[in-house]
Design a protein that fits this description.
binds iron/sulfur cluster; 10 helices; two-stranded parallel ribbon; globular; alpha/beta; Lambda Exonuclease, Chain A; five-stranded mixed beta sheet
Length: about 300
């Protein structure tokens, strides 16, 4: 696919930056434009990122023809989790959780995932596959990485996104997932135009009894067009300096920008936050590293 490094240095969007903007414009601005560090990191986000590293490693091995054993997967998780979270004062744990409880949960969750993972002959085409989506009807490129790209026995391309969450996804959430729609459009425009495409969420659910759920879905042409239109509107809002605080959104419960947000809403606009007159070309309108911001969670 296209050279991601080039586009990372220029104005761009990503699926998660679009989602962040839609969830809460102010959160988007503080984190991705002002680059203000959050007051804390959530355990859910760090845990999700750790699981993501492990799954990525598993599929990189699968691509080479190796199937990792559960004990290797759990050891890998333990190593990543220690690196990420042990003695890390930046992480704020949810009630009842700490480093050790999540270490145990991660091992259990991966055991369930490993036992439920269907045996298949899908050929792994790409893991963390970079993409750049450029279209005439979009004023800015969308860039990112697709977690997993496979081809099934019939030649269908299967696009997978890994999710770690505290609850199951509903069918509606799967069918309307913006990230998957963007991935489908990018796949079509980057070499797979005439192929059947299936979209899939692999969800590791860290409920009291851990679960692994796979959801398959697809997108029509009209759904693709609606998404492009929506992204274009997001871009327009950003360019015009519209960053609305979505006070009351579920993300407020665990938001690392709560103090800044209260300042903004109660005391007026802080000087260092005022970007309403800044031209778009000076904004880095995405994650600082061009998007490997994972995964999910914190969702109620
Ligand atoms: S507290 Fe809520 S409204 Fe305020 S920045 Fe965070 S998510 Fe947005």
């Amino acid at each position: 696919m296209n050279d991601l490094a080039y586009y990372k240095l220029r104005p761009h969007l990503s699926a998660s930056s679009v989602n962040d903007y839609i969830d809460c414009g102010l959160l988007y601005r503080l984190s991705r434009i002002d680059r203000i560090p959050p007051e804390f990191k959530t355990d859910a986000l760090e845990f999700g990122s750790t699981i993501h590293f492990v799954l990525t490693g598993f599929y990189k091995e699968k691509k080479l023809g190796n199937r990792l054993l559960l004990k290797d997967i759990q050891e890998s998780f333990e190593g990543f989790w220690k690196e990420m979270a042990q003695d890390n004062p930046e992480i704020r744990y949810s009630e009842g959780e700490d480093f050790d409880t999540l270490l145990k949960k991660g091992r259990e969750l991966l055991a369930v995932w490993h036992s439920k993972l269907p045996e298949n002959d899908f050929r792994v085409i790409g893991v963390e596959e970079p993409f750049v989506l450029i279209r005439r009807d979009l004023s800015v490129p969308i860039i990112g990485y697709i977690d997993l790209l496979e081809e099934d026995e019939a030649g269908t391309i299967v696009v997978t996104d890994f999710k770690t969450s505290g609850r199951s996804y509903s069918a509606d959430e799967v069918n309307k997932n913006l990230q998957l729609t963007i991935y489908q459009i990018s796949i079509r425009e980057n070499g797979f135009r005439n192929r059947e495409i299936l979209l899939k969420l692999d969800c590791l659910v860290k409920t009291k009894t851990p679960k692994f759920e796979q959801f398959y879905t697809s997108r029509s042409e009209i759904e693709e067009r609606r998404t492009i239109k929506k992204v274009q509107e997001v871009w327009r809002g950003m360019k015009e300096g519209i960053f609305i605080p979505n006070d009351g959104h579920w993300r407020c419960q665990n938001c690392g920008y709560k103090k800044k947000c209260d300042e903004f809403l109660e005391d007026g606009l802080a000087e260092d936050c005022n970007h309403s007159n800044r031209p778009a070309q000076n904004l880095t309108l995405s994650g600082g590293n061009g998007e490997r911001k994972k995964v999910e969670s914190g969702k109620p």
